Amino acid sequence: FLLLLSVLMAAPMGLGMEVMAPATINALNGSSVKLSCTFNSCYKVENKQFSLNWTYQECRNCSEELFLQFRMKIMNKQLDRFGNRVEFTGNPTKYDVSFTLKNVQLEDEGTYNCYVLNPPDRHRGHASISLKVLTKEPPKHDSTVAVIVGASVGGFLAVVILVLMVVKCVRRKKQQRLNTDDQKTEEEGKTDGEGNPDEGTK
Fold first, then answer.
1. Which end of the chain has fewer surrounding CB within 10 Å, N or C?
2. What pTM, to 2 d.p., does this model score?
3. Cα separation of 21 and 33, whole Å?
4. How far apart are CA 95 and CA 22, in angstroms?
5. Exposure pattern of 145-170 as b/e (b: 16+ CB <10 Å)?
6. CB–CB of 141/155 below 8 Å?
């Protein structure tokens, strides 16, 4: 439930595009972990225009290092830090830009930034994941009730998000049509204004 809340907080509905990712992911040293990042857009993904950047920050004030990019196709930037341990496992046409980090190391801890741009959306969406690397598995707790409650709440929130996205897309496309109609009306007005003087001289 807290994970869902963190995802929602990272994706304000007022912006043109929402990028969603868990705020924190725990991974066991030596394992493989999927860093999930998805996005919502009112427009279909076109490879010629779509762009994606994944960057890594070792600390809050450290510079971001680009290690994975999508420009027409996926391009891995082979940082010495990751080598060939990064594998893109998402599908942009399904609004999924996740990747898998193999053989996780302690030095992989840090912040992973997911940047997405899907024109005609003008806003570049962004989400961050804090990766924590564990040296041993945390103790297991009986959380059956919590899982059931979380699944119920999560399902409800997913429906709410979907409804809000549909409403937002409908409004945006309606506004675009209105703007287009206003522009046409203005152009027609200019044309009429230019024709009147000629009629007066006759």
1. C
2. 0.67
3. 14
4. 16
5. eeeeeeeeeeeeeeeebeeeeeebee
6. no
Residue with tokens 């725990």: 26
- Distance separating alpha carbons of residues 57 and 79, to the nearest angstrom: 13
Place of tokens 């972990």: 33
Q: Identify the structural domains of the chain with CATH numbers, from first to last.
A: 29-134 (2.60.40.10)
